[in-house]
Write a structure and sequence with these properties.
With 404 residues, this protein is an alpha+beta fold. 56% of the residues lie in helices and 7% in strands. The chain has 21 helices and five strands. This is Ubiquitin-associated domain-containing protein 1.
Amino acid sequence: EEKIFAGKVLRLHVCTMEGAEWLEEVPEDTTVEKLKERCLKHCVPGSLEDPKTVTHHKLIHATSEKVLTDTKTVLEENIQDRDVLLLIKKRAPPPLPKMADVSAEEKRKQEQKAPDKDAILKATANLPSRSVDRTVAHHNMRDFQTELRKILVSLIEVAQKLLALNPDAVELFKKANAMLDEDEEDRVDEIALRQLTEMGFPESRAVKALRLNHMSVTQAMEWLIEHADDPAVDAPLPGQTPAEATAEGGASSAEATAGPSSEAGGEEAKDELTEIFKKIRRKREFRPDPRAVIALMEMGFDEKEVVDALRVNNNQQNAACEWLLGDRKPSPEDLDKGIDTNSPLFQAILENPVVQLGLTNPKTLLAFEDMLENPLNSTQWMNDPETGPVMLQISRIFQTLNRT
């Protein structure tokens, strides 16, 4: 009966790491642990007296690289006839560390740990202090803008001299001046204005709200509701006084008288050109951000100081506030100083063909004048097909020479 019901006998090829190999014939219902004992009798005779010998070895199926489980049978591990098994001694577990070693390891980890704030302050208490306040970083960020202003001041002088040599200079600048009139910055978005007036807000008040809120209908409406009972709601915006109207009137009279003088000769044409330059400069006067003006004046600063601060800091309210509270450098007068015309930077800019061609275009001069007084308008001139390439070349030359 035992022979009839006995399981299938498998012939297994067993190898060891030392190079020994042999065939083991076992029924398929033999446990892996029993198989391991039989294998150990072949390669380690007489050592089975130590019960740990069996547990310190393992059998591995060579094809699948699977470690066989002691409690499972050969059949359950899916071992087939003539499969190859490896008998390998298990690696001894690492010894438990001594208390002294544990303390040393903890100490090493503590030494590698980053110091906390108190430790840093204690270690640096006796070091000499250095001036590293926020204004230093701010000035470093503003280096390019500061240099760009100086470059524009000097390029405006060069462009004016070049354009003055052109016999058609007066006519060119009359056309350029007409472009200014067509692209007046103070124009209000008509659709936005109509939306507010249809809600019942007075037109003049709606115009003021739109200018204060950068033509945003939603923000302008909120401002109008918030200031509905404010007695000063209809007061003109700071920096936009009736004087602008007189300036426009004076400009118009200058244009009216400029026509006949061009026929009198070169000197008269030059005077006419000077008048046109003055008129353009008046139109492109710096326009402070009205919201920033109001916010800074509410802090107690004088309007003139606030406008100067915004002009120096390109209409950036936070930077203007720091300037007002700090040493107020650079001063507004410093903004009108040009770059050293003998410097390598300025010479490289003037030698650039794109810049040379651009300086003969009246629109480039208008762009320089506008960016000088309203730096926030730089983006529109950078995107302009005529003035954009010139500004791109100036920026590239500055960045290249700044790295060398």
